[in-house]
Write a structure and sequence with these properties.
This protein has 2 domains: 2-152, 3-Layer(aba) Sandwich (Alpha/beta knot); 167-227, tRNA(m1g37)methyltransferase, domain 2 (Trp Operon Repressor, Chain A, Orthogonal Bundle). Helices cover 31% and strands 18% of the residues. It contains 7 helices and 9 strands, in the order E-H-E-E-E-H-E-H-E-H-E-H-E-E-H-H. Strands 2-1-6-5-7 form a 5-stranded parallel β-sheet, with helices on both faces. A hairpin with a 2-residue loop joins strand 8 (185-186) and strand 9. Specifically methylates guanosine-37 in various tRNAs. InterPro entries: Alpha/beta_knot_MTases, tRNA_m1G_MeTrfase_C_sf, tRNA_m1G_MeTrfase_TrmD, tRNA_m1G_MTases_N, tRNA_MeTrfase_TRMD/TRM10. Keywords: Cytoplasm, Methyltransferase, S-adenosyl-L-methionine, Transferase, tRNA processing. It is an enzyme of class 2 (transferase).
Length: 228
């Protein structure tokens, strides 16, 4: 079973949308989720999890000792799961990485807040920084939800048809081709004739050509990589 451990200041955000639809139905069967409240690992009267940045500057920084205790509790020595830190400076999450995670035992995910996390605990605990896009969120929780949703849907038995996950955008290096369904005519727009021809070879060729066209137009970076 894929096991996710999330370290956060807001455990009430989980499972959130992951408790619904495919992921929700599979929770407890194909995958397990546990949350760890970061503040439980703080000490002192005020149980502070952050402090002012060394060298000055705005905001606060999450304390290395507090984060380390939380990670050590959620992921004891010998735990084979990767330790991830949701961060805008991390490597962009890709479908390849999602598939690798889905094939593994799970993940330990640290959700950052404030200005960031003390660099020393990132190094000391081997955290892999992961980003879901070039923008800033209030914290890592939404990123963790995105990552887990992408992974869980690929776990065995979660999707009704295994091929549903193999023909989507990014799986082949291309964006996905357009989809159509009944009615045959919508506001004067018909379903492309080839899709109702019954000729599977022609349909496959059309879908491939459309995927290439859309990728060239919308994601020239992906197209260039595909050609390279």
């Amino acid at each position: 079973m894929f096991r996710a451990s999330v370290i956060t200041l807001f455990p009430e955000m989980f499972p959130g949308p992951l408790g619904l639809s495919l992921a929700g139905r599979a929770l407890g069967e194909a995958w397990a989720l546990e949350t760890h409240l970061l503040r439980d690992f703080a000490t002192g009267k005020h149980r502070a999890v952050d402090d002012t940045p060394a060298g000055g500057g705005p905001g606060m920084v999450m304390k290395a000792d507090v984060v380390a205790r939380a990670i050590d509790h959620a992921s004891p020595e010998g735990d084979p799961r990767p330790r991830l830190f949701m961060s805008p400076r991390g490597r962009p999450l890709t479908q390849t990485q999602v598939r690798e995670l889905a094939a593994g035992p799970g993940a330990v995910i640290l959700c950052g807040r404030f200005e960031g996390v003390d660099e020393r605990v990132i190094e000391a605990r081997g955290l892999q920084e992961v980003s879901i896009g070039d923008y800033i969120l209030s914290g890592g929780e939404l990123g963790a939800l995105v990552l887990l949703d992408a992974v869980v849907r690929l776990l065995p038995g979660v999707m009704g048809h295994a091929e549903s996950g193999s023909e989507e955008s990014f799986e082949t290096g291309l964006l996905e081709y357009p989809h159509y369904t009944r009615p045959q005519l919508f506001e004067g727009r018909p379903i492309p004739e080839v899709l109702v021809s019954g000729d599977h070879a022609k349909i496959a060729k059309w879908r491939r050509a459309e995927a290439e066209r859309i990728t060239r137009e919308r994601r020239p970076d992906l197209w260039a990589k595909k050609q390279g």
